[in-house]
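Input (structure):
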């Protein structure tokens, strides 16, 4: 048999106290499955008054609810025929575990962001170095150095000059339409 790991309900003492006030003989299991600790566990009490007896008949129903369902239940449990609602377990008292997980996740994301920024910075420095080397080679050959891509005003340059620039710099184009070409060059310059 596979047994579920159980934990004690976090509002058990108060629930037992409220049950004992109704009837000394009432008992409830205070264990819940660990996987269900994120839900509200509620004891719904139905008190039935018997005409022949001094003592009332008390029936208990333990249910678990999500946050939204629990809020609705709190407002309408009497319409469902229950006399009392006793909270056995609340998920709010479980939150510190989630906060630790979120903090760890935030730290991991921050480390990843730093690593990516370092890689991007290194790539950017390599790109600048390659452009400087290209300019130096062109000057050594006596050619006019190509304009630095950051100085190009994409909207003022002719289509043919942009196409030449895109081909020389290995910019991948989805189509040869002028608007697509200008967008591709702008995107490349932002990298």
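Output (sequence):
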């Amino acid at each position: 048999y596979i047994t579920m790991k159980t934990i004690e309900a976090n509002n058990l003492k108060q629930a037992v106290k409220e049950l004992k006030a109704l009837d000394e003989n009432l008992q409830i299991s205070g264990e819940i499955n660990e996987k269900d600790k994120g839900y509200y566990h509620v004891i719904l009490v139905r008190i039935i008054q018997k005409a022949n007896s001094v003592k009332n008949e008390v029936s208990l129903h333990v249910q678990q609810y999500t946050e939204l369902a629990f809020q609705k239940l709190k407002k309408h449990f009497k319409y469902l025929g229950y006399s009392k609602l006793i909270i056995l377990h609340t998920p709010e008292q479980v939150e510190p575990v989630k906060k630790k997980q979120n903090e760890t996740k935030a730290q991991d994301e921050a480390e990843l962001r730093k690593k990516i920024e370092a890689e991007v910075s290194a790539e950017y420095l390599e790109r600048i170095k390659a452009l400087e080397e290209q300019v130096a080679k062109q000057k050594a050959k006596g050619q006019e150095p190509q304009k630095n891509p950051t100085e190009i005003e994409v909207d003022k340059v002719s289509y043919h000059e942009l196409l030449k620039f895109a081909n020389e710099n290995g910019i991948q184009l989805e189509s040869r339409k002028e608007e697509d070409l200008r967008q591709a060059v702008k995107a490349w310059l932002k990298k």
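Notes: The mean pLDDT is 79. The beta strands are 6-8, 31-33, 40-48, 57-65, 84-89.
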